[in-house]
Design brief:
- By secondary structure, the chain is an alpha/beta fold.
- It has one domain: Maf protein.
- The chain is 29% helix and 24% strand.
- A seven-stranded mixed beta sheet has the order 2-1-3-4-5-6-7.
- Helix 1 crosses helix 5, helix 1 crosses helix 6 and helix 5 packs across helix 6.
- The two termini are 15 Å apart.
Amino acid sequence: MPLHLYVATTSKGKLRDFRTAAETHAVSIDPLPDLAAIEPPEEDGDTFAKNATLKAVYYSRFAPGAIVLADDSGLEVDALSGAPGVRSARFAADAGLVDSPDANDNSDVWNNIVLLQRLDGVPPPQRTARYHCVLVAARNGESTHLTDGSVEGMILNAPRGTGGFGYDPLFYLPKLDRTMAEIDLQTKLSLSHRGRALAALLAKLRI
């Protein structure tokens, strides 16, 4: 019987990434039913592992018997002492940049602007960074498995590409001479932090 998993995320980009990665392993992944109606937990952990575990355990209580996945992931920039890290999705908001209530969600754009401002004047050799993802599986309110994945790169001084989401237009992969926003989805998932974390988790779930 094919493995079926739920993932607790409202991010269309994350869901697309997980589903694309799962297809290569003959696994089906769907968003947790009625996720939008569930009051989200406060993500107050200071590490990716703490936040991912908190979310997986919490949301698994809403799908008895099912395996529920939750991740926490982000960008770690060496020149910024690992920031934005767990605050990656809220980097601009932390800096006081908030869209008007009637605006489209431009958080990715603002986050990239703040990142470029913080790295202004930092030379290319010192703009090393990585995407890091921690993925946790839980069932019936208990954590069962934890894996992580990462991919190394550099931060450009201007965005390139129109694919992906988040910091992808600025995240440059030297070996490919492309940003994450310039590669196709299958290639991205074969080397991305999220794809690697999921592959490691699926290997554990099948033991």
